[in-house]
Amino acid sequence: MHELKLDVIRRASVVSKDRFSQKDDDEIDNDLVLDLHKAKILPVYKSKNGISWAECIFQLFFSIQGPAFFVLPGGFKDVGYLMGILGAFGVAIFYIYMMQLYLWCEKELRRRHKIIEETHLSIYSMVELVFMNTAGQRRLAKVINAYLKYEIILSWSFSLSFAQLFICQNVGVILRYFNYKTSDRIILLSLFPMTTLISWVPNLKVMSSIAYFSSLMMVLVMFEIIFFIIVDPSPVSQVEVIGDMSKLSTFLATVFFTIVATPLVFPLKNEMKEPKKFGNLFGSFSSSMMILIILNVFFSLFGYIKYGQETSDNILENLPGNPIMMASNGLLTLAMIAGGAISFFVVFETVWNDELELLFCNSPNIKLYEYAARTLINLLITLVPLIIPTCEIFVNLISSFSYPFDSIVVPILLQAILLWRALVDYYR
Prior knowledge:
Layout: H1 2-12, H2 17-21, H3 30-38, H4 53-64, H5 72-79, H6 81-113, H7 123-130, H8 135-177, H9 184-199, H10 204-231, H11 248-259, H12 262-271, H13 284-307, H14 323-360, H15 366-387, H16 391-401, H17 404-427
Helix pairs in contact: 4-13, 5-6, 5-11, 5-13, 6-7, 6-11, 6-13, 6-17, 7-8, 8-9, 8-14, 8-15, 8-16, 9-14, 9-15, 10-14, 11-16, 14-15
Protein name: Amino acid transporter transmembrane domain-containing protein
Transmembrane segments: 56-76, 82-104, 147-166, 186-203, 210-231, 251-268, 280-305, 325-348, 368-388, 408-427
Organism: Parthenolecanium corni
């Protein structure tokens, strides 16, 4: 089994022959597998207790759902409820198809390179495998993977900044209920010590517990707000069927931002007891996406029907000022503050492990530098919403520069190359 694993790694990973020539086959052990795993080239591992189909849906739903959920009703106001419904489902189907391209590429690479199921592939390793024939292709693979890495840093950082902007707006709503008015920037700066303390938590297990609890609280408050909105909707005549089509691109970008989960696709698939149930027609990914988009459309449609042209960019600002709603808003705000723990962990671990740790690894004060880096990264994330104070600009920024490359460009590129090679092999 060890020889088989080594043979698979040799065929499927992009590791120079010089590295193998330094040791005999008998001397190459699990350290090599660990190095490959850390390098994100070809991780090899098995889950002791894989997750089920339903557990995968649960994890995807709770990981994706966030503050953008409350921005969509404003998008329905801009484009009209008909274009809102069609656009939301269109984006969801398109995104599911893009992820299906990734899964097809994984299947094709396993067939071509005879990669066993125990060898888990990632987006990084798939890029390495596709661009492995020449030195020029390998250099291109390094460029693509470097861009993917920094795109993840940017997307998660911008998402954290967007969440902080949303939190400031919610706190502003609560303060106005108590007849106290202040600017969002002052609120943002006052929340900085709290977010800094959360960023100092070094334990992933603790962060995960906080994040799951906050996600649960967020979903409960969402359903409470949905119940309130559908109790007494306004007449349909107050809303538009088709609105301002010049804002359609912004709306589609908002929907895309609401459902995107590309970094979670392969990690969750690899953890499933039956990975084949992840990507089929009624698999975990497709099911979770459709549940999410149906909930988003339902909430956005009824929110728009209730408030009509008065629908705010953040629908929480439309809710009545009563103690129950303010308490729910406060719980939602705390949940979003705590929910940033995992997102910050991803950003910090990527920056620290890949860039900064090597600079300070020999220093006796490495812990001090680590916490200084945590504070500085959190400060930069906090400064972004000070410069960009509106949700609409934020969503456009994130959707334009962060997600399209790994969610659209890369799967299309990988499939095109693999299909071309399959055609060449067939005619040969």
